[in-house]
Design brief:
The chain has 431 residues and is of the alpha/beta class. The chain has twelve helices and 20 strands. The structure holds inosinic acid. The site of inosinic acid has 20 residues, from α4.
Length: 431
């Protein structure tokens, strides 16, 4: 048996989808455990691009079973849309390959509307949410007034909860934000119809997971967002509304910590962030523009341009601590080809003091200035390299410097968007 958790080590968009898709070749199960369709995974297989927001990345791998656990928030309209797309592509032949927890909470139309209305109202303090209703849906879950996937299959319960909740939601939408109310009757009819579409996929995913682990299967847990968007460990309040760190697997999928074998942290070879909030190594100048253009840094979910900057050891060391990384994957190393020097923050300076550990407060992170070390760059195109030894000397030095600063081995290196454009330094999870 082997179970591996793959999580983002930065602010999301680290390229988890590509790594997970490539590891999924040897996985029996791929499991989503948090977040919702705020995630966006672009997968390129045989030159064909598929963007998934909710469905686990393993779906493109024939034979893999994909679970959406109870910790995920599910927009049923998005689920059905992705379902239609993957069925049309001939990717999903059997509902048994995609199982959705009946306990997962549902994102409803008012969550989406309130997410947008509230973030607009925050003005210059806007979080820059993806506008997918994630925060409001998690709020209702924690406030114990949410609707769960299984409720969509029971029109009696559904009507009762919808009617009870609608008064409050429509009051806030119309009276606080001046938005139009949600038509509850139409929403009810839609949800009953959506429930029928979802029904063949709804399951007790925890049982499937337990059986798979007992049977010695390979289980891959696919994180969404990233460590610094975690509600507890991230740059609060500029975070998402779920726990994104590896520990969230236990609650979000329903598995004990003793059953997790490996934790793979995924980072880009540089750093990006979408939305508001501090980002100490952000490069607002020429370098940042160069990374954005060469790295095609536009969000897979919203199409928004990503903020770009350099790799940050304070960030990666903290991520290694809170997730317990056993190895690191570095993505998009190819993008750095062509730079004579690459700045990397080895520490921060806050109020004149040298800081190596991620501080406690947002205000300290906001005042942090990177203390850079310039590492020598390389000019060679690395996209055709498949063995670590064949990378240019300075590319290997870059990797090894990161390894020693973070004190975690870099075992996967991605040098292009395709599934095969990946270097494995040791067998990881049967790869
Ligand atoms: P929300 O998750 O839509 O509430 O957005 C909260 C913050 O998390 C915003 O800054 C978003 O840009 C960011 N965010 C959410 N999901 C992702 C993701 O998958 N990648 C990168 N940033 C994300």
């Amino acid at each position: 048996m082997s179970s591996l958790v793959a999580v983002g080590a930065q602010w999301g968009d680290e390229g988890k989808g590509k790594v997970v898709d490539s590891l999924a070749l040897s996985a029996d199960l791929v499991v989503r455990f948090q977040g919702g369709n705020n995630a966006g995974h672009t997968l390129i297989v045989d030159g064909e691009k598929t963007v998934l927001h909710l469905v686990p990345s393993g779906i493109l791998q024939p034979g893999t079973v994909n679970l959406i656990g109870p910790g995920v928030v599910v927009d049923p309209r998005v689920f059905v849309k992705e379902l239609d797309e993957i069925v049309a592509k001939g990717v999903l032949d059997d509902p048994a390959r995609l199982r959705l927890s009946g306990r997962a909470h549902v994102i409803l139309d008012w969550h989406v509307a309130l997410d947008k209305a509230r973030d607009e109202a925050r003005r210059e303090r806007a979080i820059g949410t993806t506008g997918r209703g994630i925060g409001p849906a998690y709020e209702d879950k924690v406030a114990r007034r949410g609707i769960r996937v299984a409720d969509l299959l029971d029109p009696g319960i559904l009507r009762e909860v919808l009617e009870r909740t609608a008064v409050e939601k429509n009051f806030e939408l119309t009276q606080v934000h001046g938005w139009k109310p949600i038509d509850v009757e139409a929403l009810f009819d839609d949800l009953v119809a959506l429930g029928k579409r979802l029904e063949p996929y709804v399951d007790h995913t925890g049982r499937i997971l337990d059986r798979a682990l007992r049977a010695g299967k390979n289980v891959l847990f696919e994180g969404a967002q990233g460590t610094f968007l975690d509600i507890d460990h991230g740059t609060y309040p500029y975070v998402t509304s779920s726990n994104c760190v590896a520990g969230a697997v236990c609650t979000g999928a329903g598995v004990g910590p003793t059953r997790i074998d490996q934790v793979l942290g995924i980072t880009k070879a540089y750093t990006t962030r979408v939305g508001g909030g501090p980002f100490p190594t952000e490069d607002g100048g020429e370098g940042g523009r160069w990374l954005a253009e060469k790295g095609n840094e536009f969000g897979a979910t919203t199409g928004r341009p990503r903020r770009c900057g350099w790799l940050d050891m304070v960030v990666l060391r903290e991520a290694a601590i809170v997730n317990g990384f056993t190895s690191l994957a570095i993505n998009k190393l190819d993008i750095l080809s062509g730079l004579s020097e690459i700045p990397v923050a080895r520490a921060w300076r806050i109020d004149g003091k040298l800081v190596e550990d991620f501080p406690m407060t947002l205000q300290e992170v906001e005042r942090a200035e990177p203390v850079d070390e310039a590492l020598p760059g390389w000019s060679e195109d690395v996209t055709a390299v498949r063995a670590y030894e064949d990378l240019p000397d300075n590319a290997r030095r870059y990797i090894e410097r990161v390894e020693s600063w973070v004190d975690v081995p870099v075992e996967v290196i991605s040098i292009g968007p395709g599934r095969d454009e990946t270097i494995y330094r040791r067998e990881l999870f049967g790869r």
